[in-house]
Predict the 3D structure of the following.
Amino acid sequence: MENLARILDSFHPGSTQSEYIGSLMRIVREFVIPSYPVLEARIENNKAQFSEGWEGLFLALKDARILAYFVPTQYGGLKASEQDIYVMMELFGYSSPGLGVIFVSHGRAIDLILHGTEEQKQRFLPRLAHSEIGAIAMTEEKAGSDASAIGLMAKRDGDRFVLNGEKVFISNSGLAQIYTILARTKEEKGPRSLSTLVVEHGLEGFSIKDLPKKEGLRVLPTGRLVFRNTKVPSLNLVGEEERGLLLALDVIDRGRIHIAGICCGLSYRIFREIYRFAYRRRQFDHPLTSSQDISFQIADMYCQMNAARGLCFHALNQVGTPNYRLSSSQAKLFATRAVMDVASRAQVLMGGRGYLRNSLINQLCADARGMEYLEGTSNVQKMIMGRELFRIYHKEANNLG
Ligand SMILES: Cc1cc2nc3c(=O)[nH]c(=O)nc-3n(C[C@H](O)[C@H](O)[C@H](O)COP(=O)(O)OP(=O)(O)OC[C@H]3O[C@@H](n4cnc5c(N)ncnc54)[C@H](O)[C@@H]3O)c2cc1C
């Protein structure tokens, strides 16, 4: 860790954003990439707390001000551009996808709070820019793809809400200090009954429980949030009451491009690992790459990977336009498929070695499969695309005669 300290020591309060990004890239290249296989393999118990081995690296990333990239400068952040954040996500996809998801969730919590009042922004954003981690909690046992089924109840009681219920599969559980949650503020279920609240770690009646261990993305703490008569000040209501789902869906559009970026970085990592293996591995007196079938497979993987990146760049170009939701869903759908395709081909090309539990390729493949569930499954992306395509094309289709 001596070199790590050297990188961080070269920073001072006047360092520019590009200097911070440069340091982040060096930390990832020099420390995260080599540490990933060892540390992921060590994390077997998936506790809803940050694992020991990653602590030093994570603190170094915080020192490189990674938390601030998602926060506007007037609240103490560095506000990186969409392109910079996308590149950062590819970098994490390449080096440690689980770490990348930690920052995607942090970024989404910030995006939600940006829809709040000035007082809320002043209260929470400087903390999220400097030291505290955010999380976004929607999923429940009975409400996964269908967020309108959310049952966590937030009952108004004077100037506070009283929360009762549970959330499951929440990234950054235990690691985060600030949780943005979607809860029901009306008795009847449905999309118009949900509101967004900020819940701080340590509040009475709010606890975090472990979930059974995951197959991949082991560095990402994923847990269960339990609320028992938890009293949250009504000052923590973000946006209008009963408009919470609309806010969350808005914010997730951005998250989809970031998850797609992680998929692209991860595809590239798997591609490079498998190319090196296939080039070095000799069977029947030849390297595997000299077999036509294998070189065709590698060409297919390369196409998938680059097509996914192309759709991500397309989506980045649509930020702020009416087609943003369509293109971010399209990018996430395709990038998830691409990484899963690249991963499963790579695993077969590795032969028996690819099936060993803690082999690098097996770990990367498990991470690739995890991408399917984040920010909506592939079927959910298709539902969104179906709705958006209808919105855009139904009038034209009607007029075709
Ligand atoms: C590693 C990890 C991290 C996560 N982090 C978070 C987080 O930070 N915050 C959070 O809120 N959630 C988080 N989640 C939860 C994730 O968002 C959900 O797993 C996801 O939304 C799917 O919900 P579900 O698992 O309940 O599956 P279900 O909704 O039960 O779906 C099961 C299957 O059925 C399909 N399906 C469902 N309905 C339909 C339909 N009408 N038509 C066609 N197919 C359908 C789905 O595509 C899926 O394949 C995380 C999950 C994982 C694995």
Summary: The pocket of flavin-adenine dinucleotide is lined by residues 105, 136-139, 144-145, 169-171, 214, 217, 222, 370, 373-374, 376-377, 379-380 (CB under 6 Å). The longest helix spans residues 244-280. The chain has three domains: 2-130, 134-240, 246-392.
